């Protein structure tokens, strides 16, 4: 099954290249999303059917990341059906869009399933090459700029991560392995100096892909310019893949008992990410850029939780799941707004509640969810993180954490409600109404399902899921 999930998209890509048809494109993407999800379901129902290989494995350490990717990809695949039909491009161009989407998801899947650090690095690099075209897809001046910035900055980041991998092998002495399980077993024998230096390079390198400040500069442009389904994948799944690599290397430092410096680095980048978001949200004029900065904030929260340890480990897994579900919904709903108003500018979107009530409710629910209003699952994670800070007597850090979150909440809420309720421009209102026939049920249903999951999990978190999340850290 693992081999099938990695090989099948390549087969689909060859088929799509030969058969250039919109319907075939959608069938391939939806089929792959369903098969992708089946592997995750089999892990719980029939684990004996999943045969881990020498280089790829589905286990307690990566199953949460895999399930999140499957759920988000499934939602994006169904949303993409009406979205692609509204694309005013020739079939060749849409075929290339579909092929690169499949390769992008395959690369993220490989990065998650890889049980070898070097192999994970290769797949993360693959995500850069695949998603660069998708960011550039609309071929405007802004998309070209965003794609080049993305490739340039992320390539530097990947190069830094590669240097970190080399330094990790240096720290091993006579040993020579990048297999995660072997690294954990032998970590106590590693040279602590070289291990810490290696983590710095890997953190900055993969932190670039994860969107942590101060190496986040590509993210607002790329997320704002990519097609909305791709923005959802970039924010809700790609950032997680990069974090998984950082987390796996962080576990090596835990096993080596030299984690104090790594904690300081994660804490610094986490707080800086929150600060950057709180500043830039007040100056953004593009609602998709606003969501991109929100992703930087949430990756900062995850880095901050990782640095705290203890009960915050459980909180970071909750936060990762919640952010992925809600942010995917948020970006897909932003796609609806873009289809209706044909503009990404905040000031150009007014009286959304009068134009499309379903989109406006999804927009409100996504905002409340990402701002951690109960019963959002993010309320639980942020509450547990603040609690852990208090238990560790880090009162100043707790105050700063809550203060920055409050600023971010206000900045997002004022934009969202201005778009919903401000006085409408009659000409713009009528133009938006004329675009309503483009909308179909599948442009609302995926977001509704994702938000329902996020709010239900905020009310009830099954015990088996709690156990899986704990095993992701210590398993």
DSSP strand count: 0
Percent strand equals under 5%
Shape: globular
Instruction: Extract low-pLDDT stretches.
Output: none
Please tell me about this protein's structure.
- This protein is an all-alpha fold and 475 residues long.
- The protein has a domain at 273-475.
- Helix content is 78%, strand content 0%.
- Helix 8 packs antiparallel against helix 10 and helix 13 crosses helix 20 (463-474).
List the helices and strands and how they pair.
Blueprint: H1 2-18, H2 22-45, H3 63-85, H4 91-113, H5 117-136, H6 141-171, H7 180-186, H8 192-210, H9 218-225, H10 228-256, H11 260-280, H12 287-308, H13 311-341, H14 352-355, H15 357-370, H16 377-391, H17 395-421, H18 426-434, H19 445-459, H20 463-474
List keywords for this structure.
475 residues; mainly alpha; 0% strand
Briefly summarize what is shown.
The chain is mainly alpha-helical and 475 residues long. The chain has 20 helices and no strands. The chain has a domain at 273-475.
């Amino acid at each position: 099954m693992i081999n099938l999930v990695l090989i099948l998209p390549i087969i689909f890509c060859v088929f799509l290249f030969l058969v250039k048809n919109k319907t075939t494109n959608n069938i391939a993407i939806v089929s792959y999303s369903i098969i992708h999800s089946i592997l995750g379901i089999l892990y719980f129902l029939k684990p004996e059917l999943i045969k881990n290989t020498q280089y790829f494995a589905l286990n307690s350490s990566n199953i949460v990341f895999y399930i999140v990717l499957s759920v988000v990809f499934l939602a994006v695949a169904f949303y993409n059906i009406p979205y692609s039909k509204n694309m005013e491009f020739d079939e060749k161009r849409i075929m290339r869009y579909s092929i690169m989407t499949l390769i992008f998801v395959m690369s993220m899947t490989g990065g998650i399933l890889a049980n070898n650090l070097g192999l994970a690095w290769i797949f993360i690099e693959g995500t850069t090459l695949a998603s660069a075209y998708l960011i550039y897809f609309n071929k405007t001046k802004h998309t070209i700029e965003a794609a080049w910035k993305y490739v340039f900055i992320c390539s530097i980041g990947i190069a830094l991560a590669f240097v970190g991998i080399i330094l990790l092998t240096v720290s091993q002495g006579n040993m020579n392995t990048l297999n995660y399980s072997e690294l954990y077993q032998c970590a106590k024998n590693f040279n602590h100096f070289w291990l810490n230096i290696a983590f710095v390079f890997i953190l900055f390198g993969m932190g670039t892909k994860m969107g942590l400040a101060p190496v986040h500069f590509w993210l607002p442009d790329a997320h704002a310019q990519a097609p909305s389904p791709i923005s959802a994948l970039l924010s809700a799944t790609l950032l997680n893949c990069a974090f998984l690599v950082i987390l796996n290397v962080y576990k090596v430092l835990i096993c080596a008992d030299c984690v104090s410096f790594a904690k300081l680095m994660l804490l610094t980048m986490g707080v800086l990410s929150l600060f950057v978001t709180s500043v830039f949200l007040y100056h953004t004029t593009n609602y998709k850029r606003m969501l991109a900065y929100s992703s930087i904030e949430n990756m900062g929260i995850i880095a901050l939780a990782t640095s705290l340890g203890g009960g915050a480990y459980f909180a970071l897994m909750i936060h990762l799941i919640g952010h992925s579900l809600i942010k995917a919904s948020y970006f897909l709903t932003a796609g609806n707004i873009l289809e209706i108003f044909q503009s990404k500018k905040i000031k150009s979107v007014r009286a959304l509640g009068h134009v499309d009530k379903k989109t406006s409710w999804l927009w409100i629910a996504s905002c409340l969810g990402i701002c951690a209003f109960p019963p959002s699952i993010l309320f639980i994670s942020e509450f547990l993180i603040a609690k852990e800070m208090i238990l560790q007597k880090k009162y100043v850090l707790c105050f700063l954490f809550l203060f920055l979150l409050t600023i971010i909440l206000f900045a997002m809420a004022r934009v969202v409600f201005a778009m919903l309720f401000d006085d409408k421009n009659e000409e713009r209102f009528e133009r938006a109404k004329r675009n309503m026939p483009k909308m179909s049920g599948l442009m609302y249903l995926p977001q509704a399902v994702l938000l329902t999951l996020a709010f239900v999990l905020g009310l009830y978190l099954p015990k088996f899921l709690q156990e899986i999340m704990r095993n992701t850290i210590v398993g």
